[in-house]
Amino acid sequence: MTAPPGSIESLYPFLYQGTTAASGLLDQVRQSTIAKTAEILSLRRAVRDAMAGQLLACAREMARRFAADGRLLAFGNGGSATDAQQLATLFLYPGGTARPLPALSLASDAAVLTALSNDIGVDVVFARQLAAFGGKSDIAVGLSTSGNSENLLRALDEASRRGMLTVGFAGYAGGKMAELDSMDYLFVAPSTSVHRIQEAQTTMGNILWELCQDALSGSAGLETPKEQAHVPRHSR
Fold it and tell me: Which residues face 170 on adjacent strands?
């Protein structure tokens, strides 16, 4: 009997094959690990080759926003909420001699999330926060594996209306995020595996942070007046 796609059995078939000798089980675990590593390396290379120029341009624009006293506001649902928190933490507390940059995860305040969800609806949990906190020098970063989350789409539209730089991370073919006119930069991990998508998105987030740090370390020309901080929409 074939395990359904996405089930635990399909991901780790060697755990569901009955009695197996220890040496055989270890060999299957090893082969599974090697296969998954090859998948993520291949996806990361594909993303690098397709989006290197966009990542660099986005990081430079982010650096301009930070130089104009802007902040990074990241958000997502489920595992993407964790990724948003990790991204905000990377910018805010990078460690070492790297420059700390103001960043906030909009998915981290349980009181705000539950109040908005209960009183108004889950579709506004990020848009309402951006309306309260966001300014035209800020950066809105929405993370999704499908690219279809309605609360992210509404948040990115709200961020765009407020002149924020809008950055999206998605998987598959980009989903509805790829159709937004409000998106400045969209980085798509072209995979149908949620695991591989999130791993690639984490890599892209770290690349943006590193390139942003590089841009700020040679910050001449990055200082942009706040009233001119917003940029035209970028092609995807």
Answer: 188
H/E element, 233: none
Over residues 196-202, the mean pLDDT reads 95
Q: How far apart are CA 85 and CA 79, in angstroms?
A: 10
**DSSP character for 166?**
E
d(CA 53, CA 71): 23
Residue 128: other Cβ atoms inside 10 A: 21
Q: How far is CA 6 from the centre of its chain?
A: 22
User: Is 14:29 a contact under the CB 8 Å cutoff?
Assistant: yes
And the tokens for 222? 């990055």
- pTM as predicted: 0.82
**Architecture in CATH for domain 53-218:** 3-Layer(aba) Sandwich (3.40)
34-84 pLDDT, tens per residue?
Answer: 888 898 899 989 998 999 999 999 999 999 999 999 999 999 999 999 999
Tell me the average pLDDT of the chain. Answer: 89
**Rounded to whole angstroms, how far apart are CA atoms 24 and 30?**
10
Biggest CA-to-CA distance, the chain: 68
Helix, strand and coil content of the chain, in percent to the nearest 5, comes to 55, 10, 35
